[in-house]
Amino acid sequence: MRTTVGIIGAGPAGLLLARLLHNAGIDSVVLESRDRGYVEQRQRAGILEQGTVDVLRAAGAGARMDREGLRHDGIELRFARRRHRIDFPALTGGRSVMVYAQTEVCKDLIALQLKEGGPLLFEAEALAVEGADTGSPRVRFRHEGREDVLECAYVVGCDGFWGVARKAVPEELTQVFERTYPFGWLGILADVPPSHDELVYARHDRGFALLSMRSPVVSRLYLQVPEGTDAESWSDEAIWDELERRFETDDDWRLARGPITAKSVTPMRSHVHEPMRHGRLFLAGDAAHIVPPTGAKGLNLAVGDVVTFARALEHRRDTGSDALLDAYSATCLRRVWQAERFSYEMTTLLHRPPGATPFEDRIQLARLERLASARAAEQDLAEGYTGFALE
Ligand SMILES: Cc1cc2nc3c(=O)[nH]c(=O)nc-3n(C[C@H](O)[C@H](O)[C@H](O)COP(=O)(O)OP(=O)(O)OC[C@H]3O[C@@H](n4cnc5c(N)ncnc54)[C@H](O)[C@@H]3O)c2cc1C
Q: Using the 8-state DSSP alphabet, how is residue 389 labeled?
């Protein structure tokens, strides 16, 4: 098999890249190790920044998002039994975010790719990227019980944190920046209308909690739990009781309960792999960087990377210049590090690490008080949350 761009992974990064390239008249092949059902059901992100929404619309993949997505103009911070709303449009000159699940973004992009785009092979596992530093890189992969080779002009590793693409960058050329956190998120999906019409980020002495939603009838809620927690060790009742405690307020707000349909624990990690390019291999999305989910940045960063790559490749085709491809890693990393900073700050603002001292508790509360009383602090949060501009 031969193509211009070999894309490893059909998560949001790989699928959107295939769509952008198709729209630009550049051919690609997508290799995805899992089956279609798995990719379409994997519960993950749910918040799309304004810039991501604009990209999906421009790519012709925004119709269902515009019908079914929920535009959100703010979030609520909850601490010391009080509530404080951050008003995005007022603080950012009109920007907002969209609640539309990653599963739905993937379904829309898969349907478009299968109808109009180039080959998208499910259950096709990339085994290795070879010849990244030559003019003709190859992806060795296994599909339908046979090994095969995809010959490419460029390879883009969109294969997430556990993928193989990153391994093709020689260790001596790689720098990894990482932080793991001593807690994770126990996330549930529940068949119950959300108890608030915007996301609620709660800081509590017992730990962080987040109220979020997937639709007007499905809630998504999270609890900070110790690192290594087994989701099954929490009964449904214990989860609702704990959520109720952490969202408590002095007014008459109530948390509605409903049947829990999914339960899982996500570890929290910050991770950046530099550079994001080696020869003709480019890394995009979680393959190159991970953020803790508190800032809702992972999917949005993946979108930024593939837009940057697609533009750079179009520029090369139209002008013959490699300048934008050469700048790919540095261009993406500037935005990645702003998102890393933002996600780190949101995480340390709201989570209570094990063994936190009374001094650290007071500092955390003082940071929240500052957000509730100073427009400059609110503005900084609103700008970060609604998204950093693409260069
Ligand atoms: C619980 C949770 C909540 C989150 N919440 C948010 C949020 O609110 N907002 C936000 O922006 N982000 C959020 N994120 C992060 C977001 O989900 C990820 O950043 C996003 O999925 C990254 O997309 P990706 O395409 O780079 O990688 P992935 O979605 O991981 O896709 C990689 C794909 O590559 C495939 N693959 C792997 N190895 C191979 C191989 N060898 N061969 C072929 N295919 C391979 C995988 O099967 C997968 O389909 C959340 C993540 C989690 C876990």
A: P
